[in-house]
Amino acid sequence: MGQGLYPEGSITRRVNRENVLLLGGGRALLMQLAHPKVAAGVDEHSDFRSHPVQRLRRTVRMTMAIVFGDRETALSAARAVNQTHGKVRGREYRALDPELLLWVHTTLVDSAIVTYGTFVKPLTEREREDFYQESKVLGELLGIPLDRFPRTHDELAEYMASMVASGAVAVDGRALELAGLVLRPRLRLLPGHNVKLAPSLSLTQDG
After folding, report:
1. How far apart are CA 66 and CA 73, in angstroms?
2. 160: how many CB neighbours lie within 10 A of its CB?
3. Where are the domains of the chain?
4. SS3 content of the chain, % helix, strand, coil (to 5)
5. I want to staple 28 with a disulfide (CB 3.0 to 4.6 A). Which of 38, 54, 111, 150 is the partner?
6. Of the given ranges (25-39, 54-68, 96-110), which has the lowest mean pLDDT?
7. Long-range contact list for 179-184, CB < 8 A, 24+ apart?
8. In this structure, are residues 35 and 168 in contact, taking their beta carbons and an 8 Å threshold?
9. pLDDT tens across 134-188, in order?
10. How many C-beta atoms lie closer than 10 Å to residue 198's C-beta?
């Protein structure tokens, strides 16, 4: 395999090779749906209501291709995502809006750090900073201009808080409805039998 975008010794590869990171996927997805414009795009341009876990699976596949694939594999995965996003637009949103892309990116970065720290070991301040700075490579590939990113991991935390305080991120009726599909997805075990999972994921690190 040729050289990838992330070297073997990078903190990005070390964190993302942990399968336990999948446990944080639901957290990131719930945070994304808390942005009304993101929720609208997901609801109106995907099969989320019938297959809520598929979005998470697609995100995982894309991330793994960019983080662990060679350069061409990574760039191809990013192009495919951008082409899909280019078709997603509504009355008050478009998926390629850097504001929405930054929020989605932030939920993935923060959830990875929280999940790794909870189930593997806490990252040091330096490691958190390195992980965030390296994440900008992926974010730029997916359409976020470099000058839109908060400069540091501390500023990223301030950005998240400001999004909630300003009301840009606020759980509305649609978010609650879609969140129910994340927290209690229907899993078909046998023909004619469905089971619901009990909620086990939280929007907060401590909850």
Report:
1. 7
2. 18
3. 11-186
4. 60, 5, 30
5. 111
6. 54-68
7. 179/30, 179/33, 181/48, 181/49, 181/52, 182/26, 182/29, 182/30, 182/33, 182/52, 183/26, 183/30
8. yes
9. 999 999 999 999 999 999 999 999 999 999 999 999 999 999 999 999 888 765 5
10. 6
CB atoms within 10 A of CB 141: 17
Whether pLDDT at 40 is above 50 = yes
Q: Residues near 207 by Cβ (< 8 Å), separated by ≥ 6?
A: none
Q: Which of 135, 150, 160 is nearest to 66 (CA)?
A: 135
CA 81 vs CA 95, 119, 138, 139: distances in Å: 10, 29, 12, 12
| pLDDT for position 53 | 80
Instruction: Please tell me the distance from the alpha carbon of residue 83 to that of residue 64, in angstroms, as a whole number.
Output: 18
